[in-house]
Amino acid sequence: MIKIGICDDEQQMRKTLRQMLEQVLQLRGTDHQISEYGSGEELTAGISYLDTDILFLDIEMKNLDGIETAKLLRKKGMKGIIIFVTAYPDFVFQGYEVHAFHYILKPYRKEKIEEVLNQALNELKLSKEQYFVIEQKARIIRIPLTQTIAFSSDRRKVLALLKEETIDFYGKIDEIYRELPTCFIRTHNRYIVNLNYVTTLEKDRCILGTHSFPISRTFRQELETAFARTMLK
């Protein structure tokens, strides 16, 4: 599901933008959830922004304007796409400081909304392929898959072994495996490894640099086939 936020202190503008977005998303068949915020203060007060994939943010808002809101969101850890909306083209260049993805001028044109939204969705697809995201209570964890060596499970907890750190969270290894890209493969009921880090396959061990994981008979043939395929690339 794609999570979209609209932050604008004009209710009619929020309504108009929401209707246009929903038309495009429905035509694409994209499962989505749209949340509205009437001010920068309302948006930054909670934590919903942390898992917002795409945020349409009005620049000219009272008190906390869009630029300052975006700076605060980035400081608090928001990684989603920010698209500024504004009636004044002169404000557009201020967006680079907060890594704004695009901007849309008011009044809204459906063609422009569709163009920018499709670009954002395509960008989002690429970025989501590089991260594994876990939502747990009051925190959202983004695990960079290109830096992930392996996942291991211990009852209800899962440990993600990265190049520079380890991250633990609650989850089921079966469910995690179904969501990972094809470069990840199981060696055992409790272990998933990133083939890009595998250096050696022994009879009953999978070696990833200084790390070693057991290979069970159930997964050995599939692992060997996948490893051989990576060697041919």
UniProtKB/TrEMBL annotation:
Presence of the UniProt keyword Cytoplasm in the record: yes
Location of the Response regulatory domain: 3-121
Keywords, ordered alphabetically: Activator, Cytoplasm, Phosphoprotein, Two-component regulatory system
Any one Gene Ontology molecular-function term assigned to this protein's record: DNA binding
Top-level division of the source organism's lineage: Bacteria
All copies of domain HTH LytTR-type, residue ranges: 132-229
4-aspartylphosphate modification, residue list: D58
SMART domains documented for this protein: LytTR (SM00850), REC (SM00448)
Gene3D superfamilies membership: 3.40.50.2300, LytTr DNA-binding domain
Xref: Pfam families: LytTR (PF04397), Response_reg (PF00072)
Function (record text): May play the central regulatory role in sporulation. It may be an element of the effector pathway responsible for the activation of sporulation genes in response to nutritional stress. Spo0A may act in concert with spo0H (a sigma factor) to control the expression of some genes that are critical to the sporulation process.
Name of the protein this chain belongs to: Stage 0 sporulation protein A homolog
Organism: Blautia producta
Gene that specifies this protein: yehT_1
